[in-house]
């Protein structure tokens, strides 16, 4: 009997010890969850938000391929926050050209384009939307410091930078480089050159396409906008006369150039500063400071399947190579013969974001702004000179690759359906 009693006592003590260990482990896990939650909350809730956004609206636009994480849910909500500086600029001009600045994570570049925008004539009349590819605190703080116009931030909630351990980010089961999926038992579809996806590279095209669908069809501030929207990037220096010039070009486009789908602030050749002619110029659309209206967006959106399946990770090369040629007629853009915006970045989007590695001369730019660049320098009575035969990517070009994974094609198409 004594032996049995001692055995029961040992069992009881052992159970108490196991319970204590389990409680301790659960307590640690709960603490870690709370700490992580608080960290994310402090990261993304820098604005006080008392909107009416509810989870059903968010669920309605979640791509079917993805399940959200805490950060993506929070960024969805953050995208509903009204523009800042409404107290300083309560009314927008009726003929406004909305400006969209899309950025990644190059703070020094962003500071330069923001400083240049602060000197643009007419900037206070319009809305500036800053579209972030993911969430980066230093980039966020720079935008929060803007005081020269209404400004709204949106954050791509399905960026690979938001999903660090699964698609559209990188997962342990993903194929890499030229892995054989069968031999390596990994996931992924290689591009036409046998290379598997790189999340940092494909985010270029994903962000642009998500941004376009969101700005034109998803935001309350712009989904009913009838005019033009101007798109610029974080490594574009904008001259003081840029806004007035793009207003003029948008107005003249249909009258002066029926084949012109867009208006541009700069030549398609990024190193060119313009011909300095007393005339307007019609050429292929450039990727520095381009503006178009909803009619053109609808034509682009109708070509979603071609855009999403073309094996090139560059959005602009995809547009030049497959989307524009599919329109069935020449696609031109109208611009002045003197640039109103310049590309100053010396390297690609995903390089140069560290201060000691920034791709600029001594971390700064030296762009001359002459008196003629401070006021509108386009004349409505100018004739149009058209470049009939233009160099560049033509229909039939197969693409540079980097966009072969079927999952990227499907996610891209899901973005096209978000607001339809």
From TrEMBL:
Membrane-related topology note: Single-pass type II membrane protein
GO cellular component, one term: Golgi stack
Molecular function GO labels: alpha-1,6-mannosylglycoprotein 2-beta-N-acetylglucosaminyltransferase activity; metal ion binding
Cofactor(s) this protein requires: Mn(2+)
Positions that bind Mn(2+): 235, 343
InterPro entries recorded: GlcNAc_II (IPR007754), Nucleotide-diphossugar_trans (IPR029044)
Gene3D superfamilies xrefs: Spore Coat Polysaccharide Biosynthesis Protein SpsA, Chain A (3.90.550.10)
Pathway note: Protein modification; protein glycosylation
Catalytic activity: an N(4)-{beta-D-GlcNAc-(1->2)-alpha-D-Man-(1->3)-[alpha-D-Man-(1->6)]-beta-D-Man-(1->4)-beta-D-GlcNAc-(1->4)-beta-D-GlcNAc}-L-asparaginyl-[protein] + UDP-N-acetyl-alpha-D-glucosamine = N(4)-{beta-D-GlcNAc-(1->2)-alpha-D-Man-(1->3)-[beta-D-GlcNAc-(1->2)-alpha-D-Man-(1->6)]-beta-D-Man-(1->4)-beta-D-GlcNAc-(1->4)-beta-D-GlcNAc}-L-asparaginyl-[protein] + UDP + H(+)
RNA-binding in keyword set: no
Similarity remark: Belongs to the glycosyltransferase 16 (GT16) protein family.
Name of this protein: Alpha-1,6-mannosyl-glycoprotein 2-beta-N-acetylglucosaminyltransferase
Species for this entry: Capsicum baccatum
């Amino acid at each position: 009997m004594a032996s049995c009693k001692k055995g029961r006592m040992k069992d009881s003590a052992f159970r108490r010890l196991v319970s204590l260990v389990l409680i301790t482990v659960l307590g640690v896990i709960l603490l870690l969850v709370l700490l992580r939650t608080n960290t994310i909350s402090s990261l993304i809730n820098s604005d006080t938000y008392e909107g009416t956004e509810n989870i059903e609206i968010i669920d309605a636009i979640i791509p079917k391929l993805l399940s959200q994480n805490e950060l993506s849910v929070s960024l969805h909500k953050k995208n509903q926050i009204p523009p800042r500086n409404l107290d300083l600029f309560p009314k927008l001009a009726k003929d406004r050209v909305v400006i969209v600045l899309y950025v990644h994570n190059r703070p020094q570049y962003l500071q330069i384009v923001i400083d240049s925008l602060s000197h643009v004539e007419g900037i206070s009349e319009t809305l500036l939307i800053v579209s972030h590819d993911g969430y980066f605190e230093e980039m966020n703080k720079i935008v929060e410091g803007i005081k020269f116009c209404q400004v709204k931030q949106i954050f791509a909630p399905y960026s690979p930078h938001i999903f660090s351990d699964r698609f559209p980010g990188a997962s342990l089961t993903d194929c890499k480089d030229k892995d054989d999926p069968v031999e390596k038992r990994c996931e992924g579809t290689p591009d036409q050159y046998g290379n598997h996806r790189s999340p940092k590279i494909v985010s270029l095209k994903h962000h642009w396409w998500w941004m376009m669908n969101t700005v034109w069809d998803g935001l309350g501030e712009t989904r009913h906008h009838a005019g033009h929207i101007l798109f610029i990037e974080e490594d574009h220096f904008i001259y003081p006369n840029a806004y007035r010039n793009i207003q003029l070009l948008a107005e003249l486009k249909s009258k002066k150039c029926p084949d012109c789908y867009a208006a541009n602030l700069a030549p398609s050749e990024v190193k060119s500063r313009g011909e300095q002619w007393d005339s307007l110029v019609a050429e292929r659309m450039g990727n520095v400071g381009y503006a178009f209206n909803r009619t053109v967006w609808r034509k682009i959106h109708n070509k979603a399947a071609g855009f999403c399946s073309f094996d090139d990770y560059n959005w602009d090369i995809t547009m030049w190579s497959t989307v524009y040629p599919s329109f069935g007629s020449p696609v031109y853009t109208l611009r002045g013969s003197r640039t109103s915006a310049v590309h100053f970045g010396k390297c690609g989007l995903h390089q140069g974001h560290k201060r000691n590695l920034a791709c600029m001369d001594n971390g700064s730019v030296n762009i001359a702004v002459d008196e003629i660049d401070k006021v509108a320098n386009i004349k409505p009575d100018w004739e149009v000179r058209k470049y009939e035969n233009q160099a560049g990517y033509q229909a039939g070009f197969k693409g540079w690759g980097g966009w072969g994974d079927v999952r990227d094609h499907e996610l891209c198409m899901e973005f096209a359906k978000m607001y339809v």
